[in-house]
UniProtKB/TrEMBL annotation:
Domain of life, per lineage: Eukaryota
Reactions that this protein is recorded to catalyse: (2R)-2,3-bisphosphoglycerate + H2O = (2R)-2-phosphoglycerate + phosphate; 1D-myo-inositol 1,2,4,5,6-pentakisphosphate + H2O = 1D-myo-inositol 1,2,5,6-tetrakisphosphate + phosphate; 1D-myo-inositol hexakisphosphate + H2O = 1D-myo-inositol 1,2,4,5,6-pentakisphosphate + phosphate; 1D-myo-inositol 1,2,5,6-tetrakisphosphate + H2O = 1D-myo-inositol 1,2,6-trisphosphate + phosphate
Full protein name: Multiple inositol polyphosphate phosphatase 1
Family note: Belongs to the histidine acid phosphatase family. MINPP1 subfamily.
Keyword Cell membrane: no
Pfam families for this protein: His_Phos_2 (PF00328)
UniProt GO molecular function: acid phosphatase activity; bisphosphoglycerate 3-phosphatase activity; inositol phosphate phosphatase activity
Biological source species: Cimex lectularius (Bed bug)
EC annotation from Swiss-Prot or TrEMBL: 3.1.3.62, 3.1.3.80
Any single Gene Ontology cellular-component annotation: membrane
Cell location: Membrane
InterPro entries: His_Pase_clade-2, His_PPase_superfam
CDD domains documented for this protein: HP_HAP_like
Length: 383
């Protein structure tokens, strides 16, 4: 991968300086000439500087949001956390907890260890087979075949001084370098970003939305099944809390890859649109609910909060935005209403991993799991 990008860098420089082809400005050429690979782009899950900074702030913000819970010296909260086997889940957990401590949290912390159920897409052979199936790739291939994509490839190739059009995968790697390196270095833009016009980024974002919609979202029959067991576990625990309120506030934080969060959002019906997202309408549906850049940015997180009011109520908070649930027509739903709505969906007979070729280790009920963090965080607050 790196060897190929180094070769491309040399070709691009030669195109401009020797063959007088291409339209990158001298400053961008100098930046590209100075570029050398220092990050492993194949390891997208690596926690970069932006991710570390944002995760620390999320930990701090949680304490600031609920000071009566996390700064209560007389009745300290209990924070239980678990993580997937995928990098950088464990590292993210430590950074998050450091943020809580920096904000003055007095909570007890319990490490529940690694849960394979948080890496469901890595542990389900049938799902892995589905990812490369014609059924899954159909819409993505249709989108890449559109004239807009061909024009973008022609523009980028001409700008870099090539006498032929580069293919989508090659240009996509440049886009990945642009976004990955810019995210890894605070305040510094990758020289590969100069390859693109602003409108080109929308094309790649549309492509990501199409891909994720049909692999991890509402266009996939697998997605809600992979996210369902986590939801079942959540509802079981919230149900127990409403029956037997513990003496101390309890917070459970699960750290997993963004794919897991997408599965959970799909199982919950969050970001659902009545109109199916397709290669033909993705360009015109700018207000679509399924928007990866909004749903799963760096340190994406989902909070599930149980409030003890006159009746128990539940609030879902996605990346600091309260989710409006259509069933309740409110951001704060009655627990009884939500429980009844999901009763059939989380039936143990259908809500499990049996459709995979082997059984996954589920999260035991005795762990009191309430929350996920790519950050998916689920926790209970008694008001």
């Amino acid at each position: 991968m790196w060897e190929k990008m180094n070769e491309m860098k040399d070709v691009i420089l030669s195109n401009h300086r020797t063959k007088a082809r291409g339209s990158l400005c001298p400053r961008d050429l100098d930046a590209l000439e100075s570029w050398y690979p220092v990050l492993d782009i194949t390891n997208e899950n690596m926690l970069n500087k932006v991710g570390m900074s944002e995760t620390t702030e999320i930990g701090k913000d949680l304490v600031k949001m609920y000071p009566k819970v996390f700064k209560n010296m007389s009745v300290p909260a209990t924070v239980m956390y678990a993580y997937s086997s995928q990098n950088p889940a464990k590292q993210t957990a430590q950074v998050f907890l450091d943020g809580m401590r920096l904000a003055g949290s007095t909570a007890r912390v319990i490490n529940l260890g690694e849960f394979s159920a948080l890496s469901v897409d890595q542990s389900c052979p049938k799902y892995k087979d589905f990812l490369t199936s014609p059924e899954n790739l159909k819409e993505s291939r249709m989108y890449k075949a559109q004239m807009e994509i061909k024009e973008m490839l022609k523009e980028v190739s001409h700008r870099l001084g090539y006498s032929y059009d580069l293919n989508f995968d090659v240009v996509f790697q440049m886009y990945k370098l642009c976004s990955f390196e810019t995210g890894a270095y605070l305040g510094k833009i990758s020289p590969w970003c100069a390859v693109f016009e602003k409108r080109h980024f929308k094309i790649f974002q549309n492509d990501e939305d199409i891909n994720s919609y049909y692999t991890m979202g509402f266009g996939s029959t697998y997605a809600p099944r992979l996210g369902c067991p986590a939801i079942k576990n959540l509802f079981q625990i919230l149900g127990e809390i409403t029956k037997h309120t513990p003496d101390d506030p309890q917070v459970t934080v699960l750290f997993a890859h963004s794919n897991t969060l997408r599965f959970v959002l799909t199982a919950l019906g969050i970001a659902w649109d009545s109109t199916i997202l397709t290669a033909r309408n993705v360009d015109v549906r700018e207000d679509r609910m399924w928007n990866s850049s909004l749903m799963v940015p760096f340190s994406a997180n989902l909070q599930v909060v149980l409030h003890k009011c006159q009746n128990y109520k539940v609030t879902f908070i996605l990346n600091n935005y309260k989710v409006l649930y259509s069933t309740c027509n409110s951001t704060k739903c009655d627990w009884d209403v939500l429980r009844d709505e999901y009763e059939d969906i989380i039936d143990p007979l259908s809500c499990n991993f049996d459709f995979c070729s082997h059984q996954l280790n589920s999260i035991g009920h005795n762990t009191h799991v309430h929350f996920f963090v790519t950050l998916l965080v689920m926790f209970k607050i008694i008001w």
